Here is the input.
Amino acid sequence: MQNETDKVYLKALGSRIRCLRKNKCLTQLDLGVAMDNYAEQVSRIERGQLNVTICTLKKIATCLNVSLSELLQFEEKVE
Here is the structure.
């Protein structure tokens, strides 16, 4: 079970992924296909509902053509 701090981080990470994806003009389906995954999983990640592994984060970063450290550059504050 996730505590409130975890939820904040997951939502912030999801927002960061959504922002990078949109900047690349990709849909959730596009990213899901590139990751050999489903758009629904991308949606859950972007909404902060899925705690992803480092391997999945690396796959997302690769598909978005950013470094893993760039992917993880976000503020915890979520609006």
